[in-house]
Amino acid sequence: MPRPRIYKTEAIVLRQQSLGEADRIVTLLSPSVGKVRAVARGVRRPKSKLGGHLELLNRVHASIAVGRSLDHVTEAETLDSRLALKDDLESLSAALYMAEAADAFSVEDTPSHETYRLLAMSLAHLEASAAHAPLLRHFELRLLTISGFGPELYRCVYCREDLQPARHTFCHDDSGVVCSRCRHESGGALTVLSVRAMKALRYLDRQPLAHALTLELADRTWAEVGRVLGAQLRHVAERDIRSADFMRRLASASGAAT
Amino acid sequence: MINRRPMSGALVRLIEEFNKLPGIGPKTAQRLAYHVIRTPSEDASGLAQAILSVKESIALCRDCFNISEAELCSVCADPGRDRTRLCIVEEPLDVQALEKTNSFDGLYHVLHGVISPMNGVGPDDLKIGPLLERVGANEVQEVILATNPNVEGEATSMYIHGLLQPLGLTVTRPARGLPAGSDLEYADEVTLTRAIQGRQEF
């Protein structure tokens, strides 16, 4: 159904890009419309009524006018600015990573209720939780699943036999785990997967976010799970999630697991 | 995409060059190119000379990385400036904006960008290393983090603050709040929160 000339939607600001002297192109994630790229006129001027509302990661209620090439934001009101999250650099870097990943996995003119709900809920928990690793890994795995790229974690992607508790391999091309017997048949990008990391992935896959946040693992195991899921995100998106570098840099400086 | 067929090669090249400028789209590039065609030769020559001479004579200041025609910019070379205070800004244009106010008599340090993780711009892409050398080696007592009050500007300031903390300097941020002449009812909650937090006695 075509959108009305001016439509109203709730949205999260995923990205900003300067345009001309004082404008910006904002990328919004709306549950009902999906990804929207729209021009926000004059928002870089100090007296702009829209500027503060359209800051990165804000959850807003926006009125958007359909344009010829890009839509235009005509009104915006902040529903949640996530101020506590933005005042902490590590939390902010994790939030930017999630926003960039959500941007990479969303398409325009396609409702994104689940991706929106996942991002909104993850940002809310990020603001309240000190443990970033379980939150980020749960987000990555859910984002892949919602987008139709959920990895196979219970049966070998080749022989379809139930996976036994042993060291296996994650095949990124086939989006799932390959048992040790079939390993020689798989090609492309592979990551070795320990039993602990496999159990953690299954737990994150089955549990809702509130339970996933209680998962406690050694930093080494979190790093292994992060490597597998990060590589799979890159593989599916066919591009780097560039915010990951800054997030890892901050985490390694503070000694935290991400 | 520029339609090349009905145009001469020189005109197409000029349009393409204008099109590379920030904020100039293909239509504006065409308008500018046709304007150049209509202007007298001496004006067009003046424009070309001005572009060439700015590229030849302008460099970055050795200390603050502001644009300068000499090794040191006019601010760094001025002995009357307060060398104990250093204001960190994102771009050379921010120095001009602050200088117009005549309210700051310290020195500047231009980062030439802002940490933008989504665009792949990290701390190593900015002039943060030279900043640390500068504050470590000179008589700087106060660093003012005057990056833009948006998410990326805040992230940059928080990152630099973390690096400066061990040096025991006073690190400040310009006050944030309501712009002069604006309406309170249109302000977003972050601006209002910062304005209330930073209120001063009347």
Walk me through what this model shows.
- The complex is a heterodimer of chains A (258) and B (202).
- In chain A, 38% of the residues lie in helices and 22% in strands.
- Chain A has helices at residues 83-86, 89-104, 113-128, 132-146, 195-206, 209-212, 219-237, 243-254, and strands spanning 6-19, 23-30, 34-40, 59-65, 71-80, 168-171, 176-178, 190-193.
- Chain B is globular.
- Chain B has a 4-stranded parallel beta sheet with strand order 4-3-5-6. In chain B, strands 1-2 form a two-stranded antiparallel ribbon.
Taking strands numbered 1, 2, ... along the chain, how are they ordered across the largest sheet of chain A? Answer: 1-2-3-5-4
Point out poorly predicted stretches of chain A: none
The number of helical segments of chain B is 8
Assembly state (oligomeric): heterodimer
Largest sheet of chain A: 5 strands, mixed, barrel
Uncertain stretches of 5 or more adjacent residues of chain B:
none
The tally of helices of chain A reads 8
**Residues in helices of chain B, as a percent range:** 40-55%
Radius of gyration of chain A, in angstroms, nearest whole number: 20 Å
Question: Which of globular, elongated, flat, extended, rod-shaped describes the shape of chain B?
Answer: globular
Beta-strand residue fraction of chain A: 15-25%
- Kindly name the structural category of chain B: alpha/beta
- What are the secondary-structure elements of chain A, in order, as H or E? EEEEEHHHHEEEHHHH
Q: How helical, in percent, are the residues of chain A?
A: 25-40%
For the terminal residues of chain A, how far apart are their CA atoms? Answer: 41 Å
Main pleated-sheet profile of chain B: 4 strands, parallel
